[in-house]
Design a protein that fits this description.
- Keywords: Membrane, Transmembrane, Transmembrane helix.
- The chain is mainly α.
- It contains four helices and no strands.
- α2 runs parallel beside α4.
Length: 153
Amino acid sequence: MCAIKKHKLAALILVIVMLVGILIHSAVFWVINKAFPPLTYTTADSAVVVEMRLFLRRFAETTIGVCSTVFLVGSIMMLYSFIKTSPAVAFYKLFLLFSVTVVAMFACTVPFAIADKVFRGDYLFPVWGILAIMVLLFSILLGANLIKYLRNK
């Protein structure tokens, strides 16, 4: 398998891992906020409900943390491999990949945020964090690709 196909497959796997993490995070948050709204329990059972809410929230945070870490570490490793071994790639392909990934990230979380008007911002926090690192890595990728392109010209 050539280097470009390996990079494509690795990028696809990493993006899927990240999108699954965002989707699980958003879905669990939505369930928490709809099934266990905060500060609405005054009975003796409220401690159990609060514990369930906190458990599910930790689960969602852990899931997005693991998935985003796998995505970011994998992306850094791919970037290093690309810089060392791959030829220059057409810039429109890089922009297309980046754009589709960003749109997919928001597609996994925005519907949940729209459906939950009270906690809308909570859904987007992980996306902003991942996006900030992605922009940095994408800038490095563009710079490395430009250098490769200019050297081969």
